[in-house]
Design a protein that fits this description.
alpha/beta, Rossmann fold, 2 domains, 6-stranded parallel β-sheet, 5-stranded mixed β-sheet, 19 helices, elongated, binds uridine-5'-diphosphate-xylopyranose
Length: 452
């Protein structure tokens, strides 16, 4: 139930494991689109996977929810769980899915929560189904997803672990069975109670977000004392207890998961009367980090009024057209409200960004976006920016100012090219700044952040 990001990726991958899947959605337009062979989201490899499994008859789409429920042994709830302004999770779609299941189920069903939901949702779903159909025979299971946009299929097919929380052996075995290719490939299966499975998802995302907020704060301290955060992250990450991943300092985390899930976990703690200052601080720190990008730009160009700023990258991260909670949006809002013109280029996220910010001047390539710009700001580390023709950017721009919010260039090389280059947690460089005395033997310290 639900053919959004999680439902579509999970459905297509489960079909590829040999299961027969019907993706059902109340949005009939979306179902029609999927039936005509189109995939409404940008995710590498998804269209081929959907097509292959449709052609083999294992994956179908329908708007007939009654039929879909009646004909399935296992029903996955994959509907959205947006944030409310208070940070609490809006559970209305999950509740409504549970009511629908209660309404149409006739024989034993396993109801799996795949949507990211606060701990305690398994119980809620069970109660709702019981209210609708008191004599129902069913089990509720929690099976959270750990999919990153841009590599969701690989994450599903080659996960670090599969988490299944169930209250009965019958349900646990049935859900393990649909993951048989992973089980047989010795992927660790974490089999636990429903509440623990629900917590694993939230706790994992909160810790991943905490690593990012932590390294962003370390970056600020590095700036104050002349240390280089990329060297610091490398040195920290080699400690196996810390690990190198999610330690890239940047513009702050965005996307549909980290901001929402961290706030959701903080709200869950509050609701349970639990003091959790650390969890709350992850979000506060991230909000500050995004604001710091605006402040850094202001320190470079002064008053934004009447300025032209080039933004490279709008998506919340590379390889997606998703702009939800993207740090670029905050930058655009600050610039536009202060009277600046924003010329932007992003390989995939331009249409979404312009719909949200009609004032945005969308350009066909980075060089057009840099034309007459008072500063160039890199917001998203798309690979194509890594090998850009930087002298051409410099030539087009009105001023040689470059704010790199993702640390993808070498400060010394940028200064040598003639840029006034500012990045995150590294010493800023001006044209003419010489190479550091010890730079020849410090090469490893100049590596880009480890990002796997
Ligand atoms: C995340 C989780 O990784 C995934 O397990 C979960 O199920 C859904 O949420 P996703 O939001 O797709 O996935 O993106 P991810 O690659 O984790 O990046 C999230 C944000 O953190 C991006 O804005 C990214 O730019 C930022 N980030 C990530 C950093 O700033 N530094 C890092 O080191 C890593």
């Amino acid at each position: 139930m639900g053919t959004g990001y999680v439902g579509l990726v999970s459905g297509a991958c489960l079909a590829d494991f040999g299961n027969v899947v019907v993706g059902v959605d109340i949005n009939e337009q979306r179902v029609d689109l999927l039936r005509s062979g189109k995939v409404p989201i940008y995710e590498p490899g998804l269209e081929e996977l959907v097509t292959r499994n449709r052609d083999r008859g294992r994956l179908n789409f329908s708007a007939d929810v009654a039929f879909a429920i009646k004909s399935s042994e296992i029903v996955f709830i994959c509907v959205g769980t947006p944030s409310q302004p208070s940070g609490e999770v809006d559970m209305s779609f999950v509740h409504s899915a549970a009511r629908t299941i209660g309404q149409y189920m006739e024989d034993y069903k396993i109801v799996v929560n795949k949507s990211t939901v606060p701990v305690g949702t398994g119980d809620e779903v069970e109660q709702i189904i019981r209210q609708v159909r008191p004599d129902a025979d069913f089990d509720v299971v929690s099976n959270p997803e750990f999919l990153r946009e841009g590599s969701a299929i690989d994450d599903f097919m080659h996960p670090d672990r599969v988490v299944i929380g169930a209250g009965s052996q019958r349900a646990m075995e049935a859900v393990i069975d649909i993951y048989r290719p992973l089980y047989q490939a010795d992927v660790p299966m974490v089999l636990t109670g429903i509440e623990s499975a629900e917590m694993i998802k939230y706790a994992s995302n909160a810790l991943l977000a905490a690593k990012i907020s932590f390294i962003n704060e370390i970056a600020s301290v590095c700036e104050a004392y002349g240390a280089d955060v990329t060297a610091v992250a490398r040195g920290m990450g080699l400690d196996e207890r810390i690990g190198p991943r999610n330690l890239s300092a940047g513009a702050g985390y965005g996307g549909s998961c980290f901001p929402k899930d961290v706030q959701g976990l903080a709200a869950t703690a509050r609701r349970g009367d639990v003091e959790a200052p650390l969890i709350q601080a992850i979000d506060t720190s991230n909000v500050r980090q995004r604001r710091r990008m605006v402040d850094k730009l202001q320190a470079m160009v002064g008053d934004f009024d009447g300025k032209t700023i080039c933004l490279l990258g709008l998506a919340f991260k590379p390889d997606t057209d998703d702009i939800r909670e993207a740090p670029a949006l905050e930058m655009i809002a600050a610039l536009v409200s202060a009277g600046a013109t924003v010329q932007a280029y992003d390989p995939a996220a331009m249409a979404h960004s312009q719909a949200e910010h009609p004032e945005l001047v969308c350009c066909d390539d980075p060089y057009t976006a840099a034309q007459d710009a008072d500063a160039v700001v890199l917001m998203t580390e798309w690979n194509e920016f890594r090998n850009m023709d930087l002298p051409r950017i410099l030539d087009r721009a009105a001023a040689p100012k470059f704010l790199d919010c993702r640390n993808i260039y070498d400060p010394q090389e940028m200064a040598a090219l003639g840029f006034e280059y500012v990045s995150i947690g590294r010493v800023s460089r001006r044209p003419g700044d010489g190479l550091e005395e010890n730079s020849s033997w410090m090469v490893p310290g100049r590596f880009s952040p480890i990002r796997t």
